[in-house]
Amino acid sequence: MQEPVSGPAVPVGAGEVALSIEAIRKAYGATVAVEKAAMTLMAGEVHALLGENGAGKSTLVKILSGVVRPDAGGMVLKGRPYAPTSISAARAEGVATAFQELSLLPNLSVAENLLLPRLPKGVAGMTSAAGTWQAGAEILARYGLDHIDPGAALESLPLADRQRVEIVRAFVNARHVLVLDEPTAALADTQWLFDHVRAATAKGMAVLYISHRLSEVRALCSRATVLRNGRSIATVELSAATDGDIFEMMVGRRGHAARRAATSTAATLNAPVVLSVSGMAGDTLKDVSFELRKGEILGIAALEGQGQRELFRTLAGLRQPASGTISVDGVAQALRGPSHALRVGGGIAYLPEERKTEGILSGLSAASNIVLPILPSVSKAGLVSGRNERAASEEHAQRVEMSQRYLSFPIGDLSGGNQQKALLARVMATGAQTLLLFDPTRGVDVGTKQSIYAAISNFAEQGGSVLFYSSELPEIVQLAHRCMVLYGGRIFSEFTGEDIDEQALVAALIGHGGAERRASAGVH
């Protein structure tokens, strides 16, 4: 007798509605952030929420998480009304969120962040440090993060591990609905996250997944709800919608692919050298040497922890190399800080990786943030001229296609995409001829990405030079004249022009084919 063939496992509770959202509205004064937003999440489903920065995604996430209260509309969780008044109240109902802008407390330990507000108590009723450490270690081990010390201060961890801790805390607190807001923005490898998401949905969890990376969305999600201008445009089966269809729903028009700078690769290879690095070594770097030429866009590809962060911070003057030489316009320099880097040669300006903690001054307007490096030029008798500040900020905002209406807003109130545009406008406002851009489109929407791509390309076409790291390989393929792959703190491979191919980059990222590729490119 033939044994029955078993099909794929059916998620626990599949077919049941986990959470429904109906006609949600939220306004801040005259600004309507969300208007008639609606969505249904099914148990055992990974459901994508898509939209441009400013479309209302962050507001909807805050409403789901209990951070803000809606003005109208309602939510139903597992058949019961759901109206959380705080993050703790949402968690008590079984809804937990891993936020894009990390909500962890940097001065506390990893274990304390994972367990707050319920830390283990000792025999005297006091918080038990040993118990907290042990409980934190058990959680980290459960999620495959044994390499993280539960007693380490969170601020001592690299960004990728801080993001993993944020995600794990949400997993631990979610029973019915898990909200992941740009969870892979700082993760070079998605497999760890995807494995745990699939394990959770197999047990009946509903996951709301917010990401601007459509390749990830397609790999993980079955359906997607698209927001535009705060409204739900449609919920679609991803298997039946093309990327063009989704982009059109998001922005109201068809998209265009990013373009490589018009300056030819051959022309940049013969251009003058503006930045030269020879034998640089440090904590993670080992004998790194390369040249950046006038008008060139040079991409850096690397998995997490291969030395890219140290490289950029050293070139920005934020740390000193253990050995090696940095030359700007042919003159060896000991860069003593970002302000010094701006003054040497044609100037070097740095766009940091974390806009929230390293970039923006959230209480100031977007205009004030943009003109920070050029305050003397917008001041009169030591006082900032509002008229000059506005004029200068408008000029540089235009370079990154940032709407002038946002310039008077506190930058902390703007979407992540507009914050990133303002920071890029700021580094361009310095007048530096060399830009160091660390993951310049991390966590921004497809429309904002196109604006940033165009600004980078235009900068290079006008003779500027760009060194940029990106966690998204298609970005490097589209933009870079050359690409170097860092592996183990060394320049493992180099690709030029049409040889910059995503498949070849993936192989190099994991240590395959480096010697042959470096030899063919003339790298020694």
From TrEMBL:
Key words of the record: ATP-binding, Membrane, Nucleotide-binding, Repeat, Sugar transport, Transport
GO molecular function, one term: ATP hydrolysis activity
Listed InterPro entries: AAA+_ATPase, ABC_carbohydrate_import_ATPase, ABC_transporter-like_ATP-bd, ABC_transporter-like_CS, P-loop_NTPase
Domain of life assignment: Bacteria
Domain ABC transporter, residue spans: 19-254, 269-513
Similarity comment: Belongs to the ABC transporter superfamily.
Protein name: Sugar ABC transporter ATP-binding protein
Organism: Metarhizobium album
